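name: query_chain
kind: protein
chains: 1
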Amino acid sequence: MIDRRALLGATPALWLPAQLARAQQFPSKPLRYIVPVPAGGGSDFVGRTVCERWGKALGQTFVVDNLGGGGGVIAAQTTAKAPADGYTLMQGYVATHGTSPATRKLPYDALRDFTPVGMIGGTPNVLVVPASLPVDDLKGFVDYVKKSPGKYSYGSAGVGSLTQLVMELFKQQSGTFILHVPYRGIAPAFTDLLGGQTQAMFPGLAAALPHIRSGRVKALALTGAVRQATVKDVPTLIESGFKGFDALQWYGVVGPAGLSPPVVKQLNETLNTVLNGADMKDKLAAEAVDPMPMSPDQFGAYIKAEVARWSALAKERNIQVEE
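structure:
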């Protein structure tokens, strides 16, 4: 005779594996991908290019949400406060998780408030000077500037930006003194560089390429560990004897703190599959970005090192963004 009470008592246990299986099916709905800049720029292009292929790998669509403003603060806060279920991700980059934490008081912690998912890739910064400047290589530029300390100036995309910090690192190591002129973005900084109002700049390679190709500026050196195919004759600062110039304009993916390891693993593995795809390197080359697949732990260590690197430099060079 069947014990009905025993059967009823066992039923939940029998159902439990099926219920867990359904709960563990991820993703079961579209994912939100926050890009911390307005639509249309290089960072937006990188995010949309990756999400288009990543969604196919996951079997779900990504809804790209451009949340510009506050230098990435609005996007970062929104992401940090989202449910830690894997359905809200953000394209963290060198500003939100590197230079800004080093130079500003932020309403979020770049390390504690996020779960590293994976790196996307990076593009180097390039030291450029106007074509009219009578120098043709890095040594010539250093010698030229040293002859008249304080006479020359460099432009940047703003106080605390990567374009300023890289130049300050260069000044520190080269023993040069060049005045800083901050602008509201890289475009107006380029306008004055081309007009001769400033004599040097360290923009991202993608922003500099049109001006390099037109011959209006000279490229003297690159950050990063290796030379770039698009400017193969331009040496890296590292090979020129400078240390610590592996710095890049990088892009990666983070989620809110507390994402479950299985979800992070699935997201990371599918992201890396996309980055290793046959056409991804060519697609990202439009923004001079090289894919850099990493594990979550590797990416987390990378972010930590970036914050430490730029914090040390900002303290030494007294660089602080006044709110």
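note: The first helix runs from residue 4 to 23.
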